[in-house]
Amino acid sequence: MSNTQPLHVAVIGAGILGTSTAAHLARAGARVTLVTSGKPADGASGRSIAWLNSSGARSTEYRYLRLIGIDRYRTWRERHPESASYLRFDGALKWGGEDESFSDTFAYEREGGYDSVWLSREQVASLTPDVAAEAVAEEGAIYNRGEGWVNLPDLIAALLAEATASGTDLIEDAGDVRVDVQDGTAVGVVLGDGTRLAADRVVLATGGHVPAQLAALGVEVPDATPAAFVVITEPVEPRVRTVLNTPRVAVRPMPDGRLVLDADWAEKSIIVESDGSLTVPEESVRGLLEEGSRVLAGHPVLTASRVAAGLKPIPGDGEPVVGAVSAIDGLYMLFTHSGATLGLILGELVAEEILTGKPSPVLDAFRLDRFDADAELGEVGIGAWAPVTQ
To answer: Count H helices, E strands: the chain?
Structure first.
């Protein structure tokens, strides 16, 4: 019988990426401590549109990563029948704005084998009766039949239940948690009250706060994280099933009949105060509610239940930054937009890398070191990176 102790991994951040990593580590036999500054899912995961997709033009590697991310959700749904309440694949619809055509996007998706169908306004009325067909662009819309949505707080709760059943220790309300680095090696974490917890490996998964936390350790990661917000409505009847990505509003159903709304134009209106707090203009909230009503069949009156604002994690070039931080032994990171689509697969792959010590080829295009290579080649400057926001 072996007396070898299991690897002890401290994970900072209890959003979808941190919780998924913790659950996969615990499932594989690691000793896990999951630490969060507040409560699970109280950051970006609690205010995500959470549209599950690999829609639009992307690099080959990123498209593949998103596709296998969706695959893992289908596996989760089969193994967890109760997830039907918070994980749905009822399709998604998108269309262009004025002087904008989605025909090239449709051709790109079909050439890549994506399950996309072009719908006329008449077909929209037939196939997605919860959508106001008259709001759709005259040229028509793209219907992605295999796309869907997940309510991340529910998924995080399920992952936490699995993780704690496998022995994971959850530390909530830990304050300003930081990585404890000694002689170039991550040796644990320091809680907000100064308590030190030793660990063999540390995972940093704190959403939009990752760049600043790494910068404090002397590690730079290009960052395009904006302040953002979503509006969560009161329940709407009849229930909305289709995810919508329209020129002026994105709409995602919730399990209880409420809707989550956001839009790029509304995000840009948010006011960052001198103390770092965020103010959401009332007119932007009203605008989202009006746009949401306009694109839904029957034009229901939408009422805001809650407005949730905070940082929306986006790396400098729009693609994930994942895996070992080469400058600090024993430290791993997850920093990405589309944390919903990638949540299960990235947790799985990072956990596997930590436990086996073998880098996953799937993540090779998404290492932090890629930015060093770009700088050496003089191909890209930080100011030239443009985030992908879909």
So the answer is: 10, 22
Angle between helices 152-165 and 16-27 (to 10 degrees): 30
Residue 97 burial (CB < 10 Å; 0-12/13-18/19+)? exposed
**pLDDT, position 373:** 67
Taking residue 380's Cβ as centre, other Cβ atoms within 10 Å add up to 16
Residue type at position 320: P
CA distance 94 to 144: 8
- DSSP letter at 316 equals T
Distances (CA, A) of 69 to 54, 72, 262, 347: 9, 5, 23, 10
Domain made up of 92-145+226-311: CATH architecture: 2-Layer Sandwich (3.30)
Average pLDDT score, the chain:
94
**Residue 195 — left, alpha, or beta (φ > 0 → left; ψ -120 to 50 → alpha)?**
beta
Give the type of residue at 65.
L
**How many of the other CB atoms lie within 10 Å of CB of 193?**
8
Query: Which token pair is 158?
Result: 């399920």
Pinpoint the residues of the chain covered by CATH 3.50.50.60. 8-47+153-221+316-384
What is the spatial distance between Cα 31 and Cα 295, in angstroms, rounded to a whole number? Answer: 48
Question: Rounded to an integer, what distance in angstroms lies between the CA atom of residue 23 and that of residue 76?
Answer: 13
Single-letter residue type at 86: Y
Secondary structure (DSSP) of 246-267: -SS-EEEE-TTS-EEEE-HHHH
pLDDT for the residue numbered 390:
42
Section 192-202 average pLDDT: 98
201 CA to centre of own chain: 23
Q: What pTM was estimated for this model as a whole?
A: 0.94
Quick: pLDDT tens for 210-237: 999 999 999 999 999 999 999 999 999 9
Q: What is the CATH number of domain 8-47+153-221+316-384?
A: 3.50.50.60
According to the model, what pLDDT value does residue 388 have? 38
Instruction: Report the DSSP beta bridge partners of residue 167.
Output: none
pLDDT band per the 50, 70, 90 thresholds, residue 378: low
Q: How many CA within 13 A on the CB side of residue 314?
A: 18
CATH 3.30.9.10 in the chain: give the residue spans: 92-145+226-311
pLDDT value, residue 3? 57
